[in-house]
Structure formats: C-alpha cells, structure tokens
Specification:
CATH class of the largest domain: Alpha Beta
Strand order of the largest sheet: 1-12-10-11
Number of domains: 3
Order of helices and strands: EHEHEEHEHEHEEHEHEHEEH
Distance between the termini: 11 Å
CATH topology of the largest domain: Cobalt-precorrin-4 Transmethylase, domain 1
Strand content: 15-25%
Radius of gyration: 20 Å
Shape: flat
Largest sheet: 4 strands, parallel
Number of strands: 12
Number of helices: 9
CATH superfamily of the largest domain: 4-hydroxy-3-methylbut-2-enyl diphosphate reductase, catalytic domain
Helix content: 40-55%
C-alpha cells in the first residue's frame, strides 16, 4: 500500500509557540503553573505536559496561587480580569492568529460596525473573541442569518479553524441582507493550507486517515472535507485506533494531521498503517 502524506504536517506555528512556552514555564516554575482547559486539543501532548508538572483547572477560582497559563485558544476577558483580581501571574500563550481576530473585531466595532462572529459559540476560541466585542452576534450557518436583527453596517470575523467554503457562503448571504458588509477572513493560513491539501489528496486516495484530537475543530473539518471529496475518512487520535479492515485491498491511502498534532505522532501512525497493510518498509 502506498501512503501519500500531506505536505503540511505537525504543529502549526501558533501551537508550536504555545507548547514551547508551556514547557518553558513548567521547567522554570515547576508545579506552580495551571492552565484553564487543555493547552492544545491533543491528548498525547496534554499528557506529556501534565507529566512535566503542568496542572489543569476548569475555573480561575480553582487556581489559588502561582501562575495561570493562557492556552492557544485564549481566554475571555472577564477570566483574565478575575485572574488579575486574585493576584495571579499570567503567561499569555494565545495563538497570534487568535489575537489577530480579537484586534480585527475590536477595530470593526470601533468603526461603527455591528459585529458578526462566524464560529462555534461553545468553542473556547470563539468565547474569547465574543468577550472582546460584547453584544456581537455569533452564527454557525447561512440558515441563521434570516433571524438576525436589523443593522445598517455589519463587520464579520471568523473562527480561525472554520471551514472556508462555509464562510464565503455566509458572507454572501449577509451581503444580501445588509446595506454594508465588511468581512475579514481570519481563518489562519495553516488551516487554509491543510484544507486545500485535503481537497486534492482525498481525490487521489481510497482511504484518508486524519490524526488529531477528537475535540479539535480543525481536525474534524479535515475529516469532513476528505469524505466530501470521495475518500473513506477516519479521524483518529493515535495508531492504536487503526484497524486492518480499513486497508484491506487498498492500494493508496492518505495521511494528514490537525494543527495541534505533533509530527512524531503522525510518523507512528504511518508506521502502524504499513504494518496493518503488510507493506514492507
């Protein structure tokens, strides 16, 4: 079996920065560093960082003393304010692309636009963005636009890992409803590249394996796009999830990863795919 690997693999630059800062923090401060929610959507990296001493909490009120580490997705403004009130030291490792969304949304608001955030309102990144522009509307589909209130000028930003095609459709529909629409495509370059690659690669293979955390939005989108483009797609977190039956009679398989998946994990998945398919190395 031939395994075709996507060109873009491993961590995106934002996740790489965040993981490096987390490793440096625990090395310097020991077990005095706590993150709210997992640093990245990858169970192997979460486990590795926890083994080094990084603690995890679900609320800032659980962090009694020490340092609060802000993960790649960022945190809502009110949470950061609460950390300051409690006297916690904050290490901000928010992905630069996420920070860019905050800046763009605030700029549009200051210029008089009603803000629309395209994204999953339950996703931590989107929660953070909405906190920077209170009163913004959050939508996830074209169908939700009809129910939006009236406005004359609408400014649009989008979750960094959103599906690009869906965003274009939403902007077009908004333009039909509102007099002036100014949209800033804040989908990160790495996400765009991976989505473009899966569009092509999925047409060249019979099976596509996408490696990444089950809670990773960008990884889910890659698996969905692979299936839409004709491949049998499997979203896995590690090599132990692979099944020999997936590759029975398969001549060409594809392999790619989400933005928070370390490169070494993709290599292990490739090795296991070869073993299951009986492909000599």
């Amino acid at each position: 079996m031939i395994i075709k690997r996507a060109k873009t693999q491993g961590f995106c630059f934002g996740v790489a920065i965040t993981v490096k800062k987390a490793e440096e923090a625990v090395e310097r401060l020991g077990a005095d560093v706590t993150t709210l929610g997992h640093v990245v959507h990858n169970p192997q990296m979460v486990a590795a960082l926890e083994a080094k001493g990084l603690k995890n909490a679900t609320s800032v009120d659980e962090v009694q003393t020490g340092t609060m580490f802000v993960r790649a997705h960022g945190l809502p403004v009110e949470v950061l304010d609460r950390a300051a009130e409690r006297g916690l030291t904050v290490i901000d490792a928010t992905c630069p692309m996420v920070t860019k969304i905050h800046v763009q949304a605030e700029k549009l608001r200051d210029e008089g636009y009603k803000i629309v955030v395209v994204g999953d309102p339950h996703h931590p990144e989107v929660k953070g963005t909405l906190s920077h522009v209170p009163g913004a509307w959050c939508i996830t589909s074209v169908e939700e636009i009809d129910a939006l209130p009236r406005a004359s000028r609408v400014g649009v930003v989008v979750q960094s890992t959103w599906n690009g095609t869906g965003f274009s459709e939403i902007v077009r529909k908004l333009s039909e409803k509102y007099y002036e629409v100014r949209a800033v495509n804040t989908i990160c370059t790495d996400t765009k590249n991976r989505q473009s690659e899966v569009d092509v690669l999925a047409r060249e293979v019979e099976v596509m394996v996408v490696v990444g955390g089950k809670t990773s939005a960008n990884t889910k989108h890659l698996a969905e796009l692979a299936a839409m483009n004709g491949a049998r797609a499997y979203h896995i977190e590690g090599p132990d999830e692979l099944q020999a039956a997936w590759f029975a009679g398969v001549e060409t398989a594809g392999l790619m990863s989400g933005a928070s998946t370390p490169g070494w994990l993709v290599d292990r998945v490739a090795d296991r795919m070869d073993e299951l398919a009986g492909t000599p190395r």
